[in-house]
Amino acid sequence: MKKKEQELSGASFFLDDLLGLLSSELSSHTDEIVNQSICPSISNETNERLIKTPSDEETRSAIFSIHPDKAPGPDGFSDSFFHSNWETIGEGITREIQNFFISGVLPQGINATHICLIPKKTTPKSMADYRPIALCNVYYKIISKILTARLHPIMNGLVSENQSAFVPGRAITDNVMITHEMLHFLKISKAKKRGSMTIKIDMTKAYDRVEWDFIRLVLTRMGFHPKLIGWIMQCVTSVTFQFLV
């Protein structure tokens, strides 16, 4: 019992410290900086495709693109249950998914998420030694899959070439090769005589540092339709977490 209390105390301290780290840093100049850095690039034709109410087939394709053996979220249902019983429950699920895209509001509890902590080491000693894995409800997974599939074809034109992972046609190994070549150049060239150096920055909780208002600001500046932005922000801002301990 004492060990469990110590673990919970350590987790509480870690989260309090993290929440303090993630305080708002948006300034009055943020709008100006975003407007100068980003040019609108989403056409009306693209927006029309992005904001359509999903068809029955699009919804079915989304659910069957999810691996059936994924761990269940708070609702307790696995993806395989939906796959196996789609002929029975498919029509009802599809209508509920379409209702979200029409109303723009997620029903309460749909975005509830369990956080499972997976040890990074054999003998973890602190919260930093755990990797958090989010376990979401299948209903939410379907919505996010639909949005992801729609955005997938245009991501290459939206994301800078410096981002070499998670974009179609790019590989994270590209940046590894560039880094290797750069270090090789510094080693054999005259650069070391000038005192050149490289800096590696590993930003803790990089995604969690991105403020919601900033996400909305960037999406708006890119030219996305307000309806699509509303759907994305519902997915981002309505989540609630519970830790499995």
TrEMBL record:
InterPro entries documented for this protein: DNA/RNA_pol_sf, Retrotransposon-Effector_Assoc, RT_dom
UniProt domain Reverse transcriptase: residue ranges: 118-238
Record SUPFAM superfamilies: DNA/RNA polymerases
Protein name: Reverse transcriptase domain-containing protein
The organism of origin for this protein: Microthlaspi erraticum
